[in-house]
TrEMBL record:
<dbReference type="InterPro" id="IPR036458">
    <property type="entry name" value="Na:dicarbo_symporter_sf"/>
</dbReference>
<keyword id="KW-0769">Symport</keyword>
<dbReference type="GO" id="GO:0006835">
    <property type="term" value="P:dicarboxylic acid transport"/>
</dbReference>
<feature type="transmembrane region" description="Helical">
    <location>
        <begin position="145"/>
        <end position="162"/>
    </location>
</feature>
<keyword id="KW-0812">Transmembrane</keyword>
<dbReference type="InterPro" id="IPR018107">
    <property type="entry name" value="Na-dicarboxylate_symporter_CS"/>
</dbReference>
<feature type="transmembrane region" description="Helical">
    <location>
        <begin position="36"/>
        <end position="55"/>
    </location>
</feature>
<feature type="transmembrane region" description="Helical">
    <location>
        <begin position="220"/>
        <end position="240"/>
    </location>
</feature>
<keyword id="KW-1003">Cell membrane</keyword>
<feature type="transmembrane region" description="Helical">
    <location>
        <begin position="75"/>
        <end position="95"/>
    </location>
</feature>
<keyword id="KW-0472">Membrane</keyword>
<dbReference type="Pfam" id="PF00375">
    <property type="entry name" value="SDF"/>
</dbReference>
<feature type="transmembrane region" description="Helical">
    <location>
        <begin position="183"/>
        <end position="208"/>
    </location>
</feature>
<dbReference type="GO" id="GO:0005886">
    <property type="term" value="C:plasma membrane"/>
</dbReference>
<protein>
    <submittedName>
        <fullName>Cation:dicarboxylase symporter family transporter</fullName>
    </submittedName>
</protein>
<keyword id="KW-1133">Transmembrane helix</keyword>
<keyword id="KW-0813">Transport</keyword>
Length: 421
């Protein structure tokens, strides 16, 4: 069943690309169907994140235990971010995609809205304060996941602290979570249609001609993401004594959906469900994956490191190794919370360019090909979330080997298994 679903999504990608290329107007007219699919998934995300985190953190009201989980998660996120920034820095200096490029004849995209969002990224202190919601209903309405996660953890710990008195609320949360996972299963039936529509609209709108002048940058970003997915991640999995390619097969269909929709949120419910079924504890899954949407964007990290130095190369601005390290340091800080603003990666790139004195107009040119880069960097986040979940589960000694054994023994259909509470 899962393999057939992945095949359907792959065929939908191909057909959508053909429609967009040969019938661009028809392709663009399909955009509302694709947007409707994304909205269907996003309407489920906040209820699932809130209920699963509340249930996972309510165990014994142990704030120290939750603190340990949070600290280990952040340490891992920062560690992998640093490694990927290093890979991007190495590639962009070896291949030099911006060297000799004449940007004057390339079309620039309007980035006025991005400029308005830059302060949200640059002001790191404000971002930290905003994690604490002044109005939880407003935070949920805006899908501010970091604020929702913060409130859900406190709610769950408080529920655990009062013991049996919280049982009615916990049973309600369990019911809502089960309903949301079932609803996800129903919505995902329409995924091939949504994928076809989004791919047709993207190819129809941007075409192939736009990509040619920036082909070298696109090639370097895709090469870097391939190195991360098929080089760095397998090495990490080897240290974890996990077969990476079995992990990758496990989420192959979700990888394709993330690629076509450019949204990790569209796969969040199914990804959480699978990671719990295959050995990671409910507590770890419900914290690591939702928080990773904002704090563990591996694909965006690679993209940012390449594009920031690309701007310097394209405008002939010499940057020694020390200056490049400063840029990477700025990216470590500004890249957190990418999902909190629209066009998050572009906003972070613009913020970083402004902070280190790189020409902001170059970001407007990159924005013209951003959809092509966005598909790959979003897809890269999928195996990144899986590995983060396994790393933290093993670190917390909450990884169930018998669950993982399913991955190695079940190579046929993998049905949705509603979580048991």
């Amino acid at each position: 069943m899962k393999k057939f679903f992945a095949f359907q999504v792959l065929i939908a990608l191909f057909i959508g690309a053909l429609i967009g290329h040969f019938f661009p107007e028809l392709g663009q007219s399909l955009r509302p169907i694709g947007d409707a699919f994304i909205h269907l998934i996003k309407m489920i995300v906040v209820p699932i994140v809130f209920t699963t985190i509340v249930i996972g953190s309510s165990g014994d009201g142990n704030m120290k235990k939750m603190g340990s989980l949070g600290l280990k998660t952040i340490i891992w996120f920062e560690f992998i971010t640093t490694l990927i920034l290093g890979i991007g820095l190495l590639l962009v200096n070896i291949l030099k995609p911006g060297a000799g490029l004449n940007l004057s004849h390339l079309a620039q995209k309007d980035i006025t809205q991005l400029n308005e969002s830059v302060t949200k990224v640059v002001d790191f202190k404000t971002m930290l304060v905003n994690i604490i919601p002044s109005n939880i209903v407003d935070a949920m309405a805006k899908s501010d996941l970091l604020a929702v996660i913060f409130f859900a953890i406190l709610f769950g710990v408080a529920a655990g602290a009062i013991g049996k008195k919280s049982e009615p609320a916990m049973k309600f949360m369990e019911s809502v979570a089960n309903i949301m996972f079932k609803l996800t299963q129903m919505v995902m039936v329409t995924a091939p249609i949504g994928v076809l529509s989004l791919m047709a609209a993207s190819v129809g709108q941007y075409g192939i001609a736009l990509l040619i002048p920036m082909a070298k940058l696109i090639g370097v970003v895709y090469l870097g993401l391939a190195i991360v997915i098929f080089g760095l991640f397998p090495i990490i999995a080897w240290f974890l004594k996990i077969s990476y390619f079995k992990v990758f097969r496990m989420v192959w269909d979700l990888f394709l959906i993330a690629f076509s929709t450019t949204s990790t949120e569209t796969i969040l419910p199914q990804l959480m469900d699978r990671m719990e079924a295959y050995g990671c504890s409910k507590r770890v899954v419900s914290f690591v994956i939702p928080s990773g949407l904002s704090l563990n964007c591996d694909g965006s990290t690679l993209y940012l490191s390449v594009c920031s130095i690309f701007l310097a190369q394209a405008y002939g601005i010499p940057m020694d190794f020390g200056q490049q390290l400063i840029v990477m340091g700025v990216l470590v800080a500004t890249s957190k919370g990418i999902a909190a603003v629209p066009s998050g990666s572009l906003v972070v790139l613009l913020a970083t360019a402004s902070a280190v004195g790189l020409p902001a107009e170059g970001v407007a040119i990159i924005a013209g090909i951003d959809r092509v880069l966005d598909m790959a960097r979003t897809a890269c986040n999928t195996p990144g979330h899986v590995l983060a979940c396994i790393v933290v589960s093993k670190w917390e000694k909450e990884f169930r080997q018998e669950g993982w054994n399913k991955v190695q023994t079940e190579q046929s259909s993998i049905q949705h298994v509603p979580p048991t509470f």
